[in-house]
Amino acid sequence: MYEKFSPNVEKVIKLAHAIAREYDMEYVGTEHVLLAIQREGTGVGAKVLAKHGITETGLRAEVDRLVQKSMEDTWVFGRLPGTPHFKNVVAVAIEQARHLKSKEVCTEHLLLGLLRESGSVARQALNSLGITHSNAVQDILTIAANPG
């Protein structure tokens, strides 16, 4: 894997599991990771969300709307719901951390991984709330240049 996950990422992963249980899910999906980044609240990923005015209530409402829509689509078209690609997000987060020359995978790398996961609830929620991969990268660089 990677040298090290930051303490914030370890906390986010634990929170994502707890949030998945709150939703009575048997898997951890991208939506749970996104909600966990926001709930953890102190990492750069959470700061990017806050910079865009995204609150836990608003984010949860958007995730719930998208999950409900996906369930309705599944019923109408008879498709089985697919498991979100949590592994892909972690792999992309590791790649982003390496690309940004970080010594550990941090919440901002998870956020970038979520924004790269095509078709995921997290990416749809972020995009509909105005966050794209390119503006997230710019926000991360700005926050890194002006910590505090």
**Helix and strand sequence:** HHHHHHHH
Low-confidence stretches: 72-82
Distance between the termini: 30 Å
Biggest sheet details: none
Gyration radius, rounded: 15 Å
Q: What is the name of the CATH architecture? A: Orthogonal Bundle
User: Quick one: CATH class?
Assistant: Mainly Alpha
Provide a count of the helices: 8
Give the amount of beta strand, in percent: under 5%
**Class from helix and strand fractions:** mainly alpha
- By DSSP, the count of extended strands is 0
Question: How would you sum up this structure, described in words?
Answer:
By secondary structure, this protein is mainly alpha-helical. It has a single domain (7-145), classed as Double Clp-N motif. It contains 8 helices and no strands. Helix 2 runs antiparallel to helix 4, helix 2 packs across helix 7 and helix 3 (44-51) packs across helix 6 (107-116). The chain is globular and about 40 Å long. Residues 72-82 have low confidence and may be disordered.
Feature tags:
Double Clp-N motif; single chain; 69% helix; mainly alpha
Short recap of the structure:
Helix content is 69%, strand content 0%. The protein has 148 residues and is mostly helical. It is globular.
Topology:
Elements: H1 7-22, H2 30-40, H3 44-51, H4 56-77, H5 86-99, H6 107-116, H7 121-128, H8 133-145
Helix pairs in contact: 1-2, 2-3, 2-4, 2-6, 2-7, 3-6, 3-8, 4-7, 5-6, 6-8
